Amino acid sequence: MFGKRAVSESKPAPARAVERVHAMDSMPPVVAAKPGTLSAAVPPPASQPFAADNRSEDYYQIKATIFSALIDTIDLAQLAQLDPDSAREEIRDIVNEIISIKAVVMSIAEQEQLLQDICNDVLGYGPLEPLLARDDISDIMVNGASRVFIEVSGKVQLTNVRFRDNAQLMNICQRIVSQVGRRVDESSPICDARLLDGSRVNVIAPPLALDGPTLTIRKFKKDKLKLSDLVRFNSISEAGARILGVIGRCRCNILISGGTGSGKTTLLNCLTAYIDVDERVITCEDAAELQLQQPHVVRLETRPPNLEGQGSINMRDLVRNCLRMRPERIIVGEVRGPEAFDLLQAMNTGHDGSMGTLHANSPREALGRLESMITMGGFSLPTKTIREMIVGSIDVIVQAERLRDGSRRITQITEVVGSEGDVIITQDLMTFQMQGEDDQGRIKGRHEGTGIVRPKFWERAAYFGLERELSEALDALQV
Ligand SMILES: Nc1ncnc2c1ncn2[C@@H]1O[C@H](COP(=O)(O)OP(=O)(O)OP(=O)(O)O)[C@@H](O)[C@H]1O
Ligand SMILES: [Mg+2]
Q1: Residues in the chain with pLDDT values less than 70
Q2: Ligand 1 neighbourhood includes 233 CB (under 6 angstroms)
Q3: Which residue of 38, 138, 161, 198 lies most exposed, with the fewest beta carbons within 10 A?
Q4: Ligand 1 centroid distance, CA of 384 (Å)
Q5: Which has the closest alpha carbon to 112: 128, 122, 99?
Q6: Whose CA is nearest to atom 29 of ligand 1?
């Protein structure tokens, strides 16, 4: 038994907790917080900027003292057996008692905040919890115990969230990865995992990370952005979005290119909305992020090697296996290695409407990267053959970019039209033209058509009865 409640409920009483609590009587009281220093520490409402979190130095000191008194008092093994609500109750009782014994002056709100933080430390992901609870954060980046950055509205900012020390941070990393059956420690210091809510997690620990465990979380958005949201955010114009709609519906093979965090996966997810409900779709990802709405979807995920270095299943294994699963469309979350070859082959052999994303800064660079992935994958094919294969498979490249003001835009829709000799010919259908900045530093610009009235996929669009829609969207782009 542990804690005050356990004590009062069990007879005869004298349990470890009580002895400890009495022992604390003789300790000097914690320095009382200056009135008002803690009151600002109430968790910020989800939509407010993080500046609302003003946990002060005093707060952290008080919390550390109360926390260590709590840890001395409770039996963590028994606490772990309780359901979360009862465990919280238990912690609440003991913390309240410690606060009163140590004569810490706190308002009710401050006390609630402290309780919340301590419960998060003991039962959840500690200081990460308030960040995980916020929907406006897209990334959380923890560089050792005392530097936690977040990305909000495309801007990276330093928070004053911090962990007690690197040991606590490492402990939380362990807690996260162990939930999906993985392990991270000095002997296997790199680990990819997922939170239960689907957020993508990467941990790299010392000795590889020199300044303490480094944790990166791409927060899972419950309400995935739709193409209409991207139009609302000015990421793309309405006419541009209509063109993307036609491209998706008429089963063009699409490559989404962009830098890190530029919105590639989000865009891919948007485009999957145009897949018919009766199509059999297979998705291959390193960490499942896509959320397809269709009923006939098979989701596959790669697997890292186990501790003996065995059992790994990579993206190429998945894509090759896909081909034996009678897919109509194959969707590869991120193409980054020799699976490029298998994806192109699939696109070439009747799996129209397949899609993938790739890291590159322009459509041309994306083509170059595809080629080098195939070359480096050990396929000894002449350059010309590889390029022919690319031309025969990829119909459209959509470029996503995160601009310097933090906004994400679709900056190009480019078609692969053919080749001359061994040079791949492409043409832009839409580009984003920057027109300067407004007075708040936000980039202004326009999505413009390039005057193409009959793209190469015209016939395809016509086959699906979409030529009118395409022609209207292209006209709208020129306006
Ligand atoms: N057009 C957009 N407007 C606003 N936010 C966006 C937009 N596109 C994506 N985001 C947000 O940006 C974050 C990163 O998006 P996403 O995961 O799609 O990027 P990515 O390019 O796939 O990143 P990575 O290279 O890490 O895989 C997400 O939180 C997403 O919700
Ligand atoms: Mg991605």
Answers
A1: 1-55
A2: yes
A3: 198
A4: 34
A5: 99
A6: 138
Instruction: Please name the helix (run of DSSP H) or strand (run of DSSP E) that holds residue 410, with its range, or none.
Output: strand 408-420
Between the CA of residue 21 and those of 73, 75, 238, 248, what are the distances in Å? Answer: 8, 14, 65, 66
**263 CB near ligand 1 (under 6 Å):** yes
Place of tokens 């801007």: 155
Cα 207 from Cα 56, distance rounded (Å): 31
Q: Would you call 213 helix, strand, or coil by DSSP? A: coil
Q: How far apart are CA 95 and CA 30, in angstroms?
A: 13
In the structure encoding, which two tokens stand for residue 290, read together?
Answer: 């896509």
Tokens of 127: 């200081």
Return the pLDDT at 449.
94
One-letter amino acid for residue 337 of the chain = G
| CA distance linking residue 275 with residue 397, whole number of Å | 18
pLDDT, tens only, 395-450? 999 999 999 999 999 999 999 999 998 899 999 999 999 998 988 889 999 999 99
The b-or-e profile of 398-424 (16+ CB within 10 A means b, else e) is bbbbbbebebbbbbbbbbbbebeeeeb
155: which residues sit within 8 A by CB, 6+ positions away? Answer: 406
Give the amino acid at 248. G
Query: CA 352, CA 254: separation in Å to the nearest integer?
Result: 9
Strand partners, 320: none
396-402 vs 408-420, strand pairing mode: antiparallel
230 lines ligand 1 (CB under 6 A): yes
Spell out the alpha helix ranges (H) of 102-196: 108-123, 128-133, 166-178
* Closest CA relative to residue 168, chosen from 191, 146, 199: 146
What is the pLDDT at residue 141?
97
Structure token pair of residue 52: 């609302």
